[in-house]
Amino acid sequence: MSQVKKTALFFMLILLVSGALVHAGRLPWKDSTLVTIDGRHYSGDDFRVWWQNLREKDMVLPETPKPFVDWLLMFREAERMQLYQDPAYRKKVLTFLKARTLMLLKDEEVDSRISISDQDLWARYRRDFIPVSQVNLLFFSSREAAEDLWQQVGNQPVDEEHFKNLASGRAGLLSIRTQTFRPGFIDPGWRKILEGLKQGGLSKPMAWKKGYVVLRLQDRTGGNADDFSLVRRQIRQALWKERQTELTIRLLQDLRRKYAVQIDQDRLQQLDITRPDAPFSRVPIVTTSHGLVTEKEFMRQIRSMQRFRRQNGFSADNSAAFKQRVVNGIIDQTLTSWEAQARHYEKKQPFKDVYTYYCRHRMIKALEKRVFLPRAEVGQEEIKDYYQQHPREFTLPEIVRMVIAEGSEQEMHALWTEVAMGGDFRQLAGKRLGHEPPVREIPVDHLQKQVYAVVSRLSKGELSSVFTVDGHVTLVLLVERRPARIRPLGEVSGRIGEKLQQQRLAALRKEFLKKLREQSSIQVDDDLWQQLKKEME
Hints:
Chitinase A, domain 3; 16 strands
């Protein structure tokens, strides 16, 4: 084989392999080492995970891997300090893990199993949404007045013109209201009545609140594609909620069997939740294969629910149904939490990467709290000194209260003349412009240059001459000028303290990272970084 053919085949092979890698979703930098710190390797994929979790809206990919390396150095130091044993860290991680794994359990066992077809949507549309009935509701003050109309008409259909004549000036008729009804969203009794009416037909009088009502079927229309499209989303949401409820109930039933849940219904029924807490025992009300719920534990939840009801204006509830709801809530929350943890979503993608990042991030926060915060405290004297040395930072600009009117040149000159003769500017402007211009409060540094030049020459209550700004013919009345003022220290001390603390934390972090870098062996694959950067931009 010639050298040319060998070379051609070689390049074809490279292209085929490259294509296979791309189609398999394996980018060249995915498993390659991007950063090595003291012999520990971090891949391009580690950088991707870090960036995806760190990134916020409008953040730009860094020019170098330095921020990633800094983050790794901080995490490694926190790990060396064994901050994963810190109680506050463990609590935050556990809370995060519980919340996210419950969502993943719900997605796996409920949401991912919901499938709603077009046939499902159309079947629900036919059941609950059609026919569409336009109904006249006639409200009467007494049964006699309502029956008088019924006796006059009976069950014969009444056309629109005849209906208007019958209703006009009728004694005892309080009002007529026209409403649209769909079968699934109407009182079952009314639905049955409307199904028996022909177009124009009237129902017999029915009691309604403090009076009586007669229904007249004005019109009835069947379904069509346009109407279906209007309610399609509503139908889908309703079906989704129904399926969600069904699957959730099924999951909870399965979990009760899996964890062998038993409720001592006799003890629950005998439990007097109005008693003081002291007599309640450690005897279990609920037993499972993984643990139990005692009277005392159950009563803690009861007291929590009772406080919630009081604080939100609900009446006290000491019924058996209330106790059953509370015990069911305890069981459901406990079982789903156990099951979510038992599935170890934190060891599986895609949550594995998110969880790993969160743990490292929280360890860095624990390090900052332990190492930096004690050295970043800001005293009141420092706050006071900063306040006195930076008065411009806390100075509120001069404020002008003024009225602006815009219109044609002829209108503005005429308005100026009327005001000069003793008229009220805002009232006259309102008559000419169709609306009374408001009094505006504007910082002087927000005014356009032309407007500022005019306003700066005015005295309180003085009207400017007619001038033009950006093509708008304008008049300005200066109502009031509020001079610039420095905000009191009490208003800004918190902001100053936070600013100084952040500055100090940044300096401490920079110094800390410098030492970590000096103590560490760091290698970065620049070629891989450029390739990675190009792929991710």
